[in-house]
Write a structure and sequence with these properties.
Number of helices: 4
Structural class: alpha+beta
Radius of gyration: 20 Å
Strand order of the largest sheet: 1-2
Oligomer: single chain
Strand content: 5-15%
Length: 169
């Protein structure tokens, strides 16, 4: 399978912002390991990039989608990064880098885990002499959330409510 890459033309069938080559280059520069072995390695990288896209496409980005037919959230109208307008045919480098970072993390972390609500919290004390007694930390809802700080840092400037406002021209 070859991913269909969004190039800024608002494709109706796009599947990814980053290519396998971009993902590997990003990983190499950071000393991260990603699949390499021929076609099988490419297919594994494509699956990781798709998992990253599932996460990215759920974000609330600045601006508006350029067309209603486009498959992905970008390209966008009325978007800016650090007070610089983004061209309506541009895919921001932060978005491509965030997808690569998420794809690398997707090797070991479920980016969109099914929420498992533990109403008791983790056990912090337990005794078994006579009567059984168990104490829980933070009684209430405990949710497992993936730690994806690198990607969140890259995406921060592209998201709504990040201290930036969209520019309309």
């Amino acid at each position: 399978m070859a991913l269909i890459i969004e190039d800024g033309t608002a494709k109706s069938d796009a599947q990814s912002y980053a290519t396998v080559v971009e993902m590997r280059s990003y990983a190499d520069l950071r000393g991260a390991t990603v699949p390499r072995t021929g076609t099988a390695g490419d297919e594994q990288c494509e699956i990781l990039l798709m998992k990253a896209m599932d996460y990215i496409e759920g974000q609330n980005f600045v601006g508006e989608k350029r067309t209603k037919e486009q498959a992905l959230q970008w390209p966008r109208l009325y978007a800016c990064v650090e007070n610089w307008p983004i061209n309506p045919d541009e895919i921001p480098r932060q978005l491509i880098q965030a997808q690569c970072a998420l794809a690398i993390e997707a090797q070991t972390v479920d980016l969109l885990p099914t929420i498992n609500i533990d109403r008791k919290g983790p056990v912090v004390a337990q005794s078994v002499t006579g009567a059984v007694s168990v104490a829980y930390a933070n009684p209430g809802e405990v949710r497992n959330v993936p730690a994806i700080a690198k990607a969140r840092t890259l995406l921060r400037v592209l998201l709504k409510h990040s201290g930036l406002t969209a520019i309309r021209s």
